[in-house]
What we know:
Largest sheet: 4 strands, antiparallel
Shape: elongated
Strand order of the largest sheet: 1-2-4-3
Oligomer: single chain
Distance between the termini: 29 Å
Structural class: alpha+beta
Helix content: 40-55%
Bound molecules: flavin-adenine dinucleotide
Number of strands: 4
Order of helices and strands: EHHHEHEHHHEHHHHH
Amino acid sequence: MYVKLIDYPLDPALLVACGGRICYSDKHASDIYKMSDDEANKMVQHAIDSHHDSLFEHVNFTFLIEDVSRVLSHQLVRHRIMSPHQRSQRYVTLHKGEYVTPKSIEENPEAKKIYDFAVDQAAAAYQTLIDMGIPKEDARYIYPNAAHTQLIITINGRSLQHMLGLRLCNRAQGEIREMAELMLKELRRVFPEFFNHVGPNCYMMGHCPEGKMSCGKMNEMQEKYKVD
Ligand SMILES: Cc1cc2nc3c(=O)[nH]c(=O)nc-3n(C[C@H](O)[C@H](O)[C@H](O)COP(=O)(O)OP(=O)(O)OC[C@H]3O[C@@H](n4cnc5c(N)ncnc54)[C@H](O)[C@@H]3O)c2cc1C
């Protein structure tokens, strides 16, 4: 898996702060825009504290996501407030050996043998169908969810906060959790004033919203995501 943040605002705090200030000031928008880093950061903190979440819709982030499974991409695109594009299986031929192996299978040699055999069989059947003249868009039905895919997504700060809250949770599936971790690392690098506050829902809310399904590790999670 490869996750790379390829585009983000030059000054995300300023954009968020401008949105905040414009609500309450009688100045022209172009005057509001002029503020120090310190003033902008204070406004960002105020937006976080007061849950003025819509302000974080002004900042957009674009990620490349490589060599993840169709299991992951199916879960990812359930988040409706983003713009995703994904490699087409109608136009691009799938290749043998390009698939994700979950950790539990990777670590179990017997399970890995069964898994690799099944995926290879599917790949061989796919190639046979293609060679018979079956269109890719139909032959692909036989391919497993494990198949590699490539995506580019653009998503705003508010939607990221929501998505990462769910997908960094221990209840989220392993592969998408790994993707969420890599995203958060990049986001904390370019906009720490906001993303240091973002983590799994228990980290942001101060309690676990999962009820009986809770992993029971809230304290560990708080430690893991907190920034000194
Ligand atoms: C651990 C886990 C297990 C899951 N298991 C399943 C499962 O078994 N089956 C399954 O089908 N899905 C499952 N999902 C996916 C889940 O149901 C959601 O589709 C996914 O998490 C996207 O979240 P969302 O709908 O809150 O937010 P997004 O689509 O990211 O939207 C963000 C927010 O915008 C608002 N919003 C967006 N669209 C609308 C709308 N049309 N109307 C009103 N408000 C809207 C809501 O407030 C929403 O929370 C699972 C997710 C997780 C994290």
